[in-house]
Amino acid sequence: MTKKEIQKLIRTLETYCGxxxxxxxxxxxxxxxxxxxxxxPIGAYDVIEEMxxxxxxxxxxxxxxxxEFLQEHGFIHKIESLSAFVxxxxxxxxxxxxxxxxxxxxxxxxxxxxxxxxxxxKKVDNTGFKMAHWNTEIHGTCQQCQA
Length: 147
Ligand SMILES: [Zn+2]
Ligand SMILES: [Zn+2]
Hints:
By secondary structure, the chain is an alpha+beta fold. The chain folds into two domains: 3-87, Winged helix-like DNA-binding domain superfamily/Winged helix DNA-binding domain (Arc Repressor Mutant, subunit A); 96-146, Ferric-uptake regulator, C-terminal dimerisarion domain (Dna Ligase, domain 1), CATH 3.30.1490.190. The chain is built from six helices and five strands. The protein has helices at residues 3-20, 26-37, 44-54, 60-72, 118-126, 143-146, and strands spanning 76-79, 84-87, 96-102, 108-111, 134-140. The strands form two sheets. The protein has a three-stranded mixed beta sheet, with no helix packed on it. Strands 1-2 form a two-stranded antiparallel sheet. Strand 1 and strand 2 form a beta hairpin. Helix 1 runs antiparallel to helix 2 (26-37), helix 2 packs across helix 3 and helix 3 (44-54) crosses helix 4 (60-72). The longest helix has 18 residues, at 3-20. The radius of gyration is 16 Å and the shape is globular. The model has no long low-confidence stretch (mean pLDDT 92). Bound molecules: zinc ion (2 copies). The site of one zinc ion has 7 residues, from helix 6.
């Protein structure tokens, strides 16, 4: 994300917390800043390291809690296969997240679909299953790495 996009995202977080009566704390803000500024999905350990550069090195539990909060409220997503996090580019809460992950350079792109594709939804419905969220990762080689 560009500096401008990050600033916008931080403002969204501030407004969101204000509206919902949630605490807008420095660890929550800085954690989101660090994840949004990272060019690649970033793991919790690296978030702690990066935060140590701009402020006193935080306690891991503080960062884990901030990550959990941001994930729960849709500001970041976890790339399960990498155990790493990316900032949400879709700008709102959505129950599903889909990513295209380049196996060579590690770039991740968020593909945004608000709803589960119909065929898949049908299969889920047929099992009587109650879906909470869904997550799809498509791995391959990005255009740049193919060149
Ligand atoms: Zn998203
Ligand atoms: Zn690539």
